[in-house]
Design brief:
single chain, 2 domains, eight-stranded mixed β-sheet, four-stranded antiparallel β-sheet, 38% helix
Length: 454
């Protein structure tokens, strides 16, 4: 093995010191920007929280985000794929990076009792146009605020990076359609195919001030299935003259639970939940039809195919055992709405993990377990372009709630709960510091070649 000469060793030390000094300088500048912006960003967050707009109705929200980007010098396209916003900031040669936020809220009545709680109402097209309360119960207001803070920081730190940013304000995530709408509108064709795609999601279980991320599948594919179960109706006092579809439906519900426990490999993951069961009109009438509504969560196509196969076989088997003719076997309908599983590129996770440590310290960066919730961010990395993509968790739980959960058995409110809320200031500060550091590091690093790189 060759010995390293003293001049070479000194050169390496100097180079290493310069990189360290550069990193320290960048973090110092970033910390100053965040300190200067945090009060305004906190007010920005509370205004978004008080004025939520549900899926496909994000008109004012998108205008607010577009106006912010325009003021920073981004070239902005509005109403792209619904109320989608695309902001591009070119800053010399280098990688092209997409950073996405979602914008829509949920038809939920807020019960947090915060002084900035939402009291907003609007007609809900998914409830026959009835007016419903709206709430940012999934943290999209936090996503937008961090996104805005990062846009400001990157504009102010243009001398620290070179490349092209694409900031996406995406509609309709809560119904799993927004990313598809923007891609179908030609996002990658009319702008460019990014070298990397980044996104974050508020966590209801990680303390504010921390982040979490994991490699590979991090969120599940999401789909819905309807099942119509037929029978022969009769008087409730004469069950022998019927084939009771309520009994058949009950058997099917129980048998569906054996798919995960007995048909899948123990190391495979899936969830089959019957969320709705409707049948009958009166105490003493056996109906002739029962309807089930299912949500199915899987990671791989192989598991998804097996789940669908077994659902059909179970339904047919129960009907056959009851003596129903084939033409009256249960009707299984897979709905068109489908969100693919989110896959975090392993090589990109390693880079973002290290950048996050640089931004907020090793004690505040966690390995995150996979979840069975879904997120349509997954589509940005699952096109034929195989864009390396990562969606990570931003901690949002207030310190007081985390302490109560740890010491008193307090049940933390989940996403979509009317009691969920982020701790604004530390969540915003953490998100802006982490993502800005990630972006600057990616602009200065060696490019990953494909989404399949380990």
């Amino acid at each position: 093995m060759k010995k390293i000469g003293l001049p070479v060793l000194l050169a390496l030390i100097i180079i290493g010191s310069s990189f360290y000094s550069s990193d320290v300088s960048i973090q110092k500048t970033l910390n100053t920007i965040v300190a200067d912006e945090i009060d305004d960003l906190t007010s920005f967050y509370k205004e978004l929280h008080q004025n939520p707009e549900i899926s496909l109705q994000e008109k004012k929200t998108s205008q607010k985000l577009a106006s912010e980007l325009k003021s920073l010098g981004y070239k902005v396209t509005e109403n792209f794929g619904g109320y989608g916003v695309v902001g591009v900031l070119k800053n010399g040669s280098g990688p092209k990076i997409l950073f996405r936020t979602d914008m829509d809220a949920l038809p939920v009545q807020e019960k947090t009792e915060l002084d900035y709680a939402s009291k907003s109402k609007s007609p809900n097209p998914y409830d026959n146009g009835n007016e419903t309360f709206n709430m940012h119960a999934c943290g999209h207001d936090m996503h937008m605020t961090v996104w805005t803070g990062v846009a400001r920081a990157m504009a102010q730190m243009k001398n620290q990076w070179s490349g092209t940013l694409m900031f996406i304000g995406q509609p309709a995530e809560e119904i799993g359609q927004g990313s598809g709408m923007m891609l179908d509108a030609g996002l990658y064709d009319k702008f460019f195919v990014p070298d990397y795609a980044l996104g974050l999601h508020s966590s209801p279980t990680i303390r504010a001030g921390k982040v979490g991320m994991g490699k590979g599948y991090s969120m599940a594919a999401v789909e819905s299935v309807d099942i119509s179960i037929f029978g022969y109706g009769a008087h409730g006092a004469s069950p022998h003259m019927s084939v009771d579809p309520i009994v058949l439906a009950s058997m099917i519900v129980m048998d569906l639970q054996t798919i995960v426990s007995r048909n899948l490999k123990p190391i495979d993951d899936a969830v089959i939940t019957v969320g709705s069961m409707h049948g009958g009109t009166k105490h003493n009438i056996i109906p002739d039809e029962v309807k089930l509504q299912l949500t199915i969560r899987t990671y791989t196509q192989e598991v998804r195919d097996l789940v669908h196969k077994r659902i059909k076989e179970i339904c047919d088997g129960v009907a056959m055992a009851a003596g129903m003719p084939k033409e009256l076997y249960p009707k299984v309908t897979q709905l068109d709405a489908y969100t693919p599983a989110n896959y975090n590129h392993p090589g990109l996770v390693d880079r973002l993990f290290n950048s996050s440590i640089k931004a907020i310290g090793a004690d505040n960066v966690e390995d995150a377990e996979p979840q069975m919730v879904g997120e349509d961010f997954s589509r940005y990395g699952s096109t034929a372009h195989k864009v390396p993509a990562v969606l990570f968790w931003l901690g949002t739980v207030p310190e007081s709630r985390m302490k109560a959960a740890d010491e008193e058995g307090y049940r933390l409110p989940a996403l979509h709960s009317p009691f969920y809320y982020p701790d604004p200031r530390p969540s915003i500060e953490t998100g802006v510091k982490v993502v800005t550091t990630q972006l600057i590091d990616l602009f200065g690093g060696q490019q990953l070649e494909s989404a399949n790189e380990e």
